[in-house]
Amino acid sequence: MADTLNRIDARTKVTGAAKYAADHNLPRLVYGHLITSSIGRGRIVSMDLTAARAAGGVLEIYTHEHPLTFHGPPPGIAIIFSEARSPLADANVHYHGQIIGLVVAETLEQARDAAALVKVGYQAQPPKSSFEEAKKHPAPPPVTPLPLGKEIIQLAPGVTDIDAALAASEVRLEATYDLPPRHHAMMEPHAAVAVWQDGKLTLHSGTQGPVAHAEEMAVALGIATADVHVISPYVGGAFGGKAFTWAPSMLAAAAARALDRPVKVVTGREQLFTVTGHRAASSQTFGLGAGRDGRLKAIKHFTTSQSIVEDPGYRTTPKFYESPNIHIRLRVTPDMNLPTATIMRAPGDETGSFALESAMDELSVLLGIDPIELRMRNYRQVSMEGLPYSGKHLDECYRVGAARFGWARRGEPGTVKDGDWLIGLGMASSILGAGRAPTVVRVAFRPNGTATVGNATSDAGTGMWTVMAMTGARALNLPVARIKPALGDSRLPVAGPNDQYGAVGSAATATVTPAILVAAREAIGKLVEHATTAPGSPFLGADDVRYVEGRVVGKGTSLTFGELLTRTGTTEVAAEGTTAPPDAGHAFASFAAHFCEVRVNRWTREVRLSRFTTVVDAGTIINEKTARGQITGGVLFGLAAAMAEEVRVEGATGRISNANLADYLLPVNADTVEMDVHFLDHPDPAISATGARGIGELGTVGAGAAYANAVFNATGVRVRSLPVTADKLLP
Ligand code: MOS
User: Fold this and answer.
1) In the structure, which protein residues have their CB atom closer than 6 angstroms to any atom of ligand 1?
2) Cα(728) to centroid of ligand 1, in Å?
3) For 400-453, what is each residue's pLDDT tens digit?
4) Which atom of ligand 1 is nearest to the CA of 346?
5) Torsion 694-695-700-703 (CA) sign
6) How many CB atoms lie within 10 A of CB 412?
7) Which atom of ligand 1 lies nearest, measured to the CA of 239?
8) pLDDT per residue as tens digits for the range 543-583
């Protein structure tokens, strides 16, 4: 079984010693507070700043009439996933809650209170903010360098189109699944502390990719990337919301430059809902056609979404099941008066898996075939591109999960009762593409007997600090306590554009750990070379020098590397190790099977989660404990979409009516259970030498479908629009 270790950063976090971005208080620090629009569409015609300027402590108020200078647009793929317009660019209001000003004052309270005194006059127009309305007029997706939005049509010889294949199927299901917008709702709000010295910026700002953040900031500010130093050792949750750069850090940096004072900007909780991205609303129509034997003959997956970012067809359907006929299409609702969408944990995958795995459950009912059996009859042996999987044990996930969970006890819908409670069991699959970027890791031996292992990735709460320490310890044959990981800093190494986004796409562990092995080998080679060549070394000229568990051995003597470096008066012996992505001869994915039990009150229709089992096939599990945290967190993230979460947009005003953590419902401890998480732990040598595939988003995929399928089994009511609220379960 895998190793398991408590987080090495646990003590510093729970004692409050860990400094998150907003915890940095510098001499002469001043505070910025964002002003946001209170209309959904139109123009600002006046901003009366008189009272705000007269308020105590106010240094400056930036607006479109007195803007900060930004260059743009965002570089590379950031333009797809973050706001394309620079803040304070003009008088136009594109959505409710758009940034229209920044007040900078001596204290946080002064900035906030002055912002409340700004009087804004608008020329308002009716906003186009209703997705319900907009989805009636979908448009083809924009063309981007990414495969998002790509139409996929695969038809068997002689089949004219997908509708013909559906019509020729003996059993057909057609259903539409609707998901509302959702927000990341991470604990730590987007915050930035910016300080300039000699034309160079130091930025404390929580991010998933320190180097990408530095580059995006550099472009926005019109300076060289090398002149931006992003520091982000601790990130209080991100989920995709901190993968790209948002206006609060841009405004903090630009104001700090203009005022020649360090500036701190902390985004308010309500503001987070509008200025830092979200998961776009979507509506997916599935057509499934099958023979009486359950073999799929046609899969039609047509989606309309607010944004190309949320493309469930492309992300999900090609990966799940074999079918001779597949047609996947995305349409979007452009130019809506809504905040900018971005990636959010399992973008497209959570959305698509809810629809697909609900549809498969519905098909299993129509066919009278057990849901697991139906999935096995359509098991994908090779990828849609015809490649074999590097490792796929989803069948074992189903088998092991069914046994652990007691799947055989499942009854007919609406028939299993415990007093006033209806009991239901549901299952769903999770499949998530397993990425691995090229990267560079630096390993350095130090005279104090420690070794540093550095990469410009991020730990957004995932356990990366610990995974890097454990992998470094294994590679160097040292106790974990003697490995000093370094991450969350734009000056640490990365391989380039494919790697600079750091902890995204559930790929950080798969990316960084093999590079640690390479860098450790290189560093050991350098250490041996140092031992035989450095003045003052007792190993000078020896030809039998070896590295053994932290010691340099040879010539009849033995020193720890710390002793050696102390003797030679050397501050470090270091090497970089570079890795390439895995070979192209395989398809790479992680897999899981989810099993969910719910209890539904027969009178109130309250749904209680009562049991959850997940069996995971994700290659080597590097740290069982943090991996378990990733899976349970990911599952709850997916369950949350089914249980409670919904950004409510008022169609008439474009205002989000629940933009706070009181009204935006999230499951809390009382809503969940101790989950049964089991790792198959089959190492995957084809993905890398550590054999680890990604898990960060794996738990999220399919979890909502398992819940909705369990609710159906309990009640006989199929809910195709999330969240599953009691009103949707009334008979
Ligand atoms: Mo994840 S949505 O790739 O941060």
Assistant:
1) 208, 240, 243, 343-345, 347, 504-505
2) 31
3) 999 999 999 999 999 999 999 999 999 999 999 999 999 999 999 999 999 999
4) 2
5) positive
6) 9
7) 4
8) 999 999 999 999 999 999 999 999 999 999 999 999 999 98
